[in-house]
Automatic annotation (TrEMBL):
EC numbers for this chain: 5.4.99.12
HAMAP family xrefs: TruA
Assembly notes: Homodimer.
Catalytic-site annotation from UniProt: 52
A Pfam family hit: PseudoU_synth_1
UniProt organism field: candidate division NPL-UPA2 bacterium Unc8
Protein name: tRNA pseudouridine synthase A
Assigned keywords, A-Z: Isomerase, tRNA processing
Catalytic reaction equation(s): uridine(38/39/40) in tRNA = pseudouridine(38/39/40) in tRNA
Length: 252
């Protein structure tokens, strides 16, 4: 059996998330259908992140086990021919059998994009959250510094979150402006459900003057979802990259 690692880019607009769902279009469903057609065997993909409906990815990672002897470059070419234009395979390589896309991941980087402009953009409507009013980026960056580090992020996850582990190490949280676009880049070792979108919504509340950066300490200590900002819509979120130990060193 060979273990194959894929790096996948997709536009999540028309999908009900990554995870397979009966009678609903999902990214995993499209990929497994294409793989079955090419490999003539049923395989199960394991992804680094189970992105929600409407969330995009530039660097999703998934792996699967297969008996195929098709070279990886041929497999990549075949998949890109079989997949809809909203999904593309950017890399296809064999890795050691112990590699597992979710369990082996060390860090993930997400980006939330805000269009901060007086006018909406029809071309960006599926990829950026439109917010026309002034945002104070200096205060948003002050808030980002407070949230960076190892904290209990119970206030920043969906109330339906079932996982007991709530301690996450937020390694980097940066707020950048490029013209009318504001990027919130969030890198952590572990993400709770909706955490990236709630962190982004809370920083947005700081930028618009609804709360102060200093209130974040109280929000963290409260461990109460109601204390943090809104869950921003999914279309502004993109999984940029998943980081692993070096595969060449045999540590995967």
């Amino acid at each position: 059996m060979h273990n194959i690692k894929l790096i996948i880019e997709y536009d999540g607009t028309d999908y009900h998330g990554w995870q397979l769902q009966t009678e609903l279009p999902t990214v995993q469903g499209e990929l497994e259908k294409a793989l079955k057609s090419i490999l003539q065997e049923k395989v199960k993909l394991i992804s680094a992140s189970r992105t929600d409906a409407g969330v995009h990815a530039r660097g999703q990672v998934a792996n699967f086990k297969t008996r195929t002897t098709i070279p990886t470059n041929g497999l990549m070419s075949g998949l890109n021919s079989a997949l809809p234009c909203s999904i593309a395979i950017k890399s296809c390589v064999r890795v050691k059998s112990s590699f597992q896309a979710r369990r082996s991941a060390k860090q993930k980087l997400y980006r939330y994009t805000i269009l901060n402009s007086p006018c909406p953009s029809p071309l960006l409507r599926n990829y950026a959250y439109f917010f026309p009013r002034h945002l104070d980026l200096i205060k948003m960056r002050e808030g980002a510094i407070i949230l960076t580090g190892r904290h209990n992020f119970s206030s920043f996850c969906a109330s339906a979150e079932t996982r007991e582990k709530r301690i996450c190490h937020l390694l980097s949280l940066q707020v950048k402006r490029r013209g009318a676009l504001i990027y919130i880049d969030i890198e952590a070792d572990y993400f709770l459900h909706n955490m990236a979108r709630i962190v982004s919504g809370t920083l947005l509340d700081i930028g618009r003057g609804k709360i102060s950066p200093q209130e974040l300490q109280k929000i963290l200590l409260a461990r109460d979802r109601r204390q943090a900002g809104p869950t921003l819509p999914p279309h502004g979120l993109c999984l940029i990259k998943v980081k692993y130990p070096s595969l060449r060193s045999g540590k995967a």
